[in-house]
Amino acid sequence: MAKFLTTIRLAVGAIALLCVLAIAAPVSAQDRNPDGSVNPTASAVKEDQLLRELNRIQGRVTIPDTKEGVLIQPAGREWREFHQVTLYWIGAISIIGMLALLVIFYLMRGMVKIEHGRSGRTVVRFNPFERFVHWLTAACFIVLAVSGLNITFGKSLLLPLMGADAFAGWSQWGKYAHNYLSFPFTIGVVLIFLMWIGGNIPSRTDVEWVKRGGGLFGHDHPPAYRFNAGQKMIYWIVVLGGTAVAVSGYILMFPFYGGMTVAGMQLAGIVHGVVAVLFIAAMLAHIYIGTLGMEGAFEAMGTGEVDVNWAKEHHSLWLEEEARRVGGATPRATPAE
Amino acid sequence: MARMKFLCDADRCIECNACVTACKNENEVPWGINRRRVVTINDGKPGERSVSMACMHCTDAPCASVCPVNCFYTTADAVVLHSKDLCIGCGYCFYACPFGAPQYPRVGNFGSRGKMDKCTFCAGGPETDNAQVEYEKYGANRLAEGKLPLCAEMCSTKSLLAGDGEIIAQIYKERVVKRGYGSGAWGWKTAYKETIAS
User: Fold this and answer.
1) N or C: which terminus of chain B has fewer CB atoms within 10 Å of its end residue's CB?
2) Which range of residues forms the domain containing residue A297?
3) Residues B96, A40: C-beta atoms closer than 8 Å
């Protein structure tokens, strides 16, 4: 009997011990310190683990500025790499490269002359409203480009020449100009889009034009309507590039509006920078063709009237259209002064 | 010279926000700006931790690198400071900063930013030490008075440590050894490319 009681006692003791162990189970060996005390950090959030999961540590703050809930965002260092290295190279290569190309091209080809000389008669190419919109956009673009390049390249190029105070003052005004002129620039881009969309839909004539090496590259004069393939390309660069810089620019100008995160702001900065430097490079080519590159081209946006022979060589189909529309051989011809 | 650093012992931080309040008061920080804040991770869940964060005064600071007007400078104590006379309020330092330290007062409509403001490690700015003009622009210059940043000095649990990096790292290591655990020096890897083994 005594033996039986001992067995029961042993069994109860063993069950009790198991129960204690079961209750204590959540605190496993690794949750305990070597001395047996509970390690409260075993289940705690870990910096390394959080960074691995999201590459960002996000929490809750009690201050009103909720974006400060981001504790650590190592992506900032990547953005720095973009701004200080990647954008520098993209900008320098595209802009200096384009300038070099244009100089080489000018030395090789020179100004493209009107082959049959000036006829002395002109035809209206752009009305005053079109020219106003063009120059509004162009003037804004130049200020935006200079003040924008200053933000990226100014400290390497101008700061050593101007000194810290003068450079900061100039950059401050550059920032104001950049912010405020963005509005007329955007209006200009929208008007350009609406005003010239009719003549800028790619068509079969463009394929022919490119094949025959129209514009600057060949010596041929393939037929073209009001805008040839090259001009259509510039049009779409302005419309699409302008939209991209405007949208990304307004995001940067209205920081963190509409729940924008720091990652979104960084992306806007990247898009704005890359599109802007490529846009500037493209516009350098546009300025070259419109001035030094081609005889008789600047008048289109200057006085608004081009020489009939120029129109015949570069926009033969457009000239025919104009002639039909007006009902004469050469519409609104004015004698040479 | 010392290499000044902050270290927040997350196992001690009780999210009392006294560091935030002390900083605002000591430096007369403008409305809407917090140079320091306490972020709680996994709030309300097991393993929740709070970390007090401000400018970490990084080695090779990203803010200084991206600044278009080079308004940042590093003092002999390795404190990263900036000149509000040169700052144009472009906001780039905020995008580059891993710790969300730069702050901007709103000075107009839309999102127009004023001169950037951030933690100075209670070391003022480029003006003469403790001049009125320095105080108005940057807040207190306790370092020039031989004192450490107030946020850390008055931390009730001594969670937030400020001072020479080697000394505060040593204090933290001793704590970890004594209590047997430590979740590490938050942000040190990102700011100083080093960490304290725990």
Assistant:
1) N
2) 121-326
3) no
